[in-house]
Amino acid sequence: MAEWKIAYDSWKPEEQPLREALCTLGNGNFATRGAAEESSADEKINYPGTYLAGGFNRLVSKVSGKDIENEDLVNWPNWLPLTFRHTGEEGWFELSQVEVTHYRQELDMYQGLLTRQIQFRDSQNRETHITSRRFLSMANPHVAALEWELTPQNWSGEIEVRSALDGRVKNSGVARYRSLASQHLVPLETGQHNDETIFLLTQTTQSHIRMAQVARTRVFVEPPSENYKRETKTGDKAYTEQLLRLSCKKQHPLRIEKVVMLYTSRDFAVSEIKQEACTNVSRLGSFSQLLHEHCRTWRHIWDRCDLEIASNHNAQRILRLHIFHLLQTVSGNTVDLDVGVPARGLHGEAYRGHIFWDELFIFPFLNLRLPELTRELLMYRYRRLPEARYAASQAGYRGAMFPWQSGSNGREESQVIHLNPESGNWLPDNTFLQRHINAAIAYNVWQYYQSTTDLEFLSFYGAEMIFDIAQFWSTIATYNEQKGRFEILHVVGPDEYHTEYPDSEEPGLRNNAYTNVMAAWVIRCALGIAKVLDNTRLEELYEKLHISADDRSRWEDISHKMFVPFIEDGSIIAQFEGYEQLQEFDWEKYKKKHGESMRLDRILESEGDNVNKYKASKQADVIMLFYLFSSEELLALFQSLGYELTEKDISANIDYYENRTSHGSTLSKIVHSWVLARSDRKRSWSNFLEALMSDVSDVQGGTTQEGIHLGAMAGTVDLLQRGYVGLDIRENVLWLNPALPVEVSYIKLQLRYRGHWLTLLLTHQKLLISVDKGFTKKVKIGLKGQVHTLQTGDKKEFEIS
Ligand code: BGC
């Protein structure tokens, strides 16, 4: 069972912010950080944040005399508060006020349960033991519950238990944002529903999302007694509490259950949210009944989504942690909520809960386990097409231009200025020019279709997105007579260190290779889809989107004549045009001082220098191409563009950029590990281990506490399935090209592929495939150039040499 648990065996206040993020519990509807129930937010140790999927609000802040509007994922009222004190004494129990003699915190990922065992001595030498257990129900998306078992070790006496709902919260989880406006909630009402239930109603200031929270608190003493007093305080609209006064006997445990329900104005099937919450909470069973249902739902999820790996370095446990956090952020409960996947989960406030291109790293896992979830998450983009079309037209293009950072309605949410904590300077932020997000969305639609053959989705939603994105690329591309090729100007690639030329006043770069190749791929994809859809639908779409025959002939043209820059016409793809003129960077000097993963942009700016001047990337950029496409596909793509690229060139490009990348984004190591999976398994494995440790060890020094890195988490899992098992869907065949690192003795996983459940067991000698359950259709599996047809019930073993 150890492989299912993350445990901490001592109380270390300085580690608490990181532990809070890593012990966050969520159910795809909302999530709460692993903060202590008895704590309240302070600026250093405790931050009990609760976040709702899609719970955004906008506020205006004054920065350097300018009004800046930001949209944030709101920190909602804290439902956790539970503590006690000895009657007649002032202070409430808090870890900072007692001597902790034993502490163990355990996150059980199989059950989705967070447990703390605390033994402590207070200033009166009273010793007390508390076991606290908590979960956010996967079975009922509105329910959270916690339980305390309090045992006086060497004392008897009367205590007061305090159970509260606290709406006096704001967004202050990220130090960099603290000078900006942060009060997102307006308190509306608090009150008592019945003897054991209190409620709190609140609303966001601008988006007017309402949330009702109710808390039902019960106590159970041994031997049973009803002899306790309860008092409810409701004077404050933002805070309500119940005080329960009762007697404790030495060595007799006292059990407290707090069951909370949370409804919002975004929910379906409700009349009025406060009434709904109050009525439904009284229908709920006990803590243990609710826990039972919750664990059963998690068991069902794990039955589909777990994978096994035999290796060193805790890989099994950490991979489970990654799957766990992904499925707590998006789950079956997310369906119909109209949300995307926030890059930092529902685990903290970094990046304000925005949705980026990170879905590119996340969807491959979901596509092959819970495709219905990917479909739902793609609909988040589809519903925001009108906003993306408007953005394209405002910028002078046709089609749809999706924002780099997306939130509630699909408007561009990237910040216009950002604070460099190293220097204290506010700087312009031009990362919004990452138009490649559009290619990621089209790529995700196509990959979903490849894993599912969901033609209805492609026909009614997916194709529309791909066509509109192709049209955007076609109109942002301009023809350069001199080059005899199309080019894309004023953009930024995935590497956020390069947003302009060092001597330029204007933001943006010319011909970012990744962007250009992806644009050509999207256009080719759009042309290919035309062959898949029925003519009626195709004509409807062409008419609706105003795509003419001339437009399509321009698409054809671009798909063969997109410009890709190379360094001195050699075999190294230039990250962007003019890249070779940048200066080489003194990596040794800076690595010695700042370690491996550095935020060079911030460091150099604080030294009065500029990272734009150097051949120094934040993350994989050109290399992304080798990550997204198999070498067969990529070489063919380059060939169709009229460029010769060989297998050997791919290795040379990987080496070239690996030596010039600082891995300032956790996504970077995933990509670098991936691209080496075949050519250099040792280096690939060491990169994989670094990616694996990104969040558990907080390699970026303080970023994980502000929210986990979901792209990197899901990316490590995907690395096993697509990188090491070598899974690739091409021409209706599921190709497998295994390359197991020596450090791994086997990988076992289950996949949902085109309606079938497949189980794959890969060792260094053999690959065993069983087609467990599924539709009657046959499955084509490709291995070493040969295609095999399997069907339900088949088991096949292949030799691997
Ligand atoms: C990375 C982006 C990523 C974003 C959110 C940034 O640091 O450069 O590629 O999308 O974080 O994870």
UniProtKB/TrEMBL annotation:
Residues 8-266 form the Glycoside hydrolase family 65 N-terminal domain. Residues 320-717 form the Glycoside hydrolase family 65 central catalytic domain. The keyword Glycosyltransferase applies. Residues 728-790 form the Glycoside hydrolase family 65 C-terminal domain. Substrate binds at residues 357-358, 618-619. GO terms for biological process: carbohydrate metabolic process. The active site is at residue 496. InterPro entries: 6-hairpin_glycosidase_sf (IPR008928), 6hp_glycosidase-like_sf (IPR012341), Gal_mutarotase_sf_dom (IPR011013), GH65_N (IPR037018), Glyco_hydro_65_C (IPR005194), Glyco_hydro_65_M (IPR005195), Glyco_hydro_65_N (IPR005196), Malt_Pase/Glycosyl_Hdrlase (IPR017045). Keywords: Glycosyltransferase, Hydrolase, Transferase. GO terms for molecular function: carbohydrate binding; glycosyltransferase activity; hydrolase activity, hydrolyzing O-glycosyl compounds. It comes from the Bacteria. Belongs to the glycosyl hydrolase 65 family. This is Glycoside hydrolase family 65 protein. It comes from Pontibacter qinzhouensis.
